[in-house]
Amino acid sequence: CFGCRYCGEIHVGSVGHPFRTCRGMSSDKRKGEHDWGSTFVEAVFLPVEAYHLEDRLGPRIPHDQRFEVPRIPALVELCIQAGLDLPEYPTKRRRKPIVKIGRKEFVDANEDDLPDPEPDKFKEPILEEVSDDEITPPSSPEETAALAEETLKMWETLRNGALRLMKRYSVRVCGYCPEVHIGASGHKARNCGAFKHQQRNGQHGWQAAVLDDLIPPRYVWHMPESGELQKELKIFYGQAPAVVEICIQGGAQVPEKYKATMRLDIGIPSSLKEAEMVV
Ligand SMILES: [Zn+2]
Ligand SMILES: [Zn+2]
Ligand SMILES: [Zn+2]
User: Fold this and answer.
1) In-domain check, residue 82
2) 19, 77, 224, 257: which sits with the fewest CB atoms below 10 Å from its CB?
3) What pLDDT, in 10s, does the model give residues 109-130?
4) Which domain holds residue 14?
5) Ligand 3 centroid vs 46 CA: distance in angstroms?
């Protein structure tokens, strides 16, 4: 993988891509060409963080508490609210539905008649991040292909699982910036970073989130069979989420649902001459 030193563009392949789409600093000097360097896993798998709620039905987080509430990966917070117990991030569990006593007010149901909850049945510490030097690359093409298949399957499992949880537990996203909130009504921290946010006093504009807000698929160019991208043929090339493209270049089968955006349904001309004949 490569990342441009001047803009956020990333590319999956053995060399950078040739398209002059750079709008980063001094890109006019480079005539729009990207300046490719190394990249981080965070560029491929964008980290999205959200506040961890100690009570998902509790009062909304006020502006002045914005630095006291922990921020954790939004996906982890969604899992916690859906039932995952992590000792570091406790949260209130209700075993009976709440009792409404007004339009917005409620009280917790009396749970005295329930048996004591089983202690710490599923509790285990959150997975530690593996440090970079402990990660070893696959040693053979076969191992690479198997790892690519497995990784792609995990990516799909992750996305499908998150989508199903989002049907039960609300996820909100700001309409002006990428801020995500797990919970029904957003938080009240006035730290919206969007353009023109002053008019709204920095308040986020909460709306229903979609899966891509929670797990952003960073699209990259899909490398055609020919193994090279040609500047003149840009309009023919398709794209795929970076994780998917890495797995495919590693030897995984292309999942049916990505074939259209990858332009695998149309066939890519091998040269400008051939392209002109098609058009
Ligand atoms: Zn790479
Ligand atoms: Zn660039
Ligand atoms: Zn915002």
Assistant:
1) yes
2) 257
3) 888 888 877 766 556 666 677 7
4) 2-45+217-278
5) 17
